[in-house]
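The step that takes the researchers longest sounds almost clerical: writing a folded protein down as plain text. Below is the pair of lines this work produces for a single protein:

——
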Amino acid sequence: MKKMLQIALPKGRLGEKVYKMFEAAGFSCPEVLDDTRKLIFENEEAGVRYFWVKPSDVAIYVERGAADLGVAGKDILLEYEPEVFELLDLNVGKCRMAVAGPKGFRDNTENTLRVATKFTNIANTYYRSLGRDIDIIHLNGSIELAPILGLSDVIVDIVETGTTLLENDLEPFETIVPISARLIANRSSYQFKNEEINAVLKGLKAQTEALK
């Protein structure tokens, strides 16, 4: 008997785009895109149950076993390092993690570099690899304000188009890592629902190939 797969989707435009990939792969549940306050949607025939969660929470649901599969940004996986299996780069939600600062900024390596970010683990790992002494300033919003107001020298943040940076006389000058949406699996589920998960994986791989 087919086992039901619990799939955590990130709320928002990315989640809707990803759901359409699942749908095209043969795992549809039309109610998912309805204008409703429902959070859980099921298609017993397809063997899937979808639910919407905050993007940064997807990996938690998968790691803890509330979801068998989920879609999370590579930034979340690098920052929080959840114990999950990363199965596939979905080739959507593409952007990059970058260092940005005031135009013309030059790093004086004799001083401790002040770095504002909400991605403290990624920033620490990156600068540790360079042997650079830094002072991390953890912020949750409007990271761009930090160098403008003199709180930090640079920021580490996700850059999509770079428009917001340019409008504030900032510019990205170092790419740390490219970011995109990844299919992740609960480790136990991957063992006990392997057939079902691999069927989804096979269908999604066909979709990602079409995006290349």
